[in-house]
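Section 5.1 Outputs to date
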Amino acid sequence: MSFQQDKELRKRPRLPLSFPLFARGVDANGKLFKELFTALNVSACGMLVLTSYKFFPARHLQIDLPVGVVGQEVRTKNREVNAEVVRIEQRERSKLVGIKFNRPIA
């Protein structure tokens, strides 16, 4: 099943935003990893990312999601979001990975 066929299963619309971000987790050998990948679209419930890293379905991740903070000074910081890999589609040199957030972000 491709990502295009799954559109009707999404609970929230996705925005076509592309930006780099990090994910942390435990690999298949039990080792901690931190991997840079590129978000391709984002919703309150999940995201589609492009990566060359070997993610596996049902793998739990912690994503460092950049958020803007407006106060005395405008800056960005990372919000840690717990998530799970829900599907993987192999491409020539990379993978499209569907990630579901454990709780919707707001």
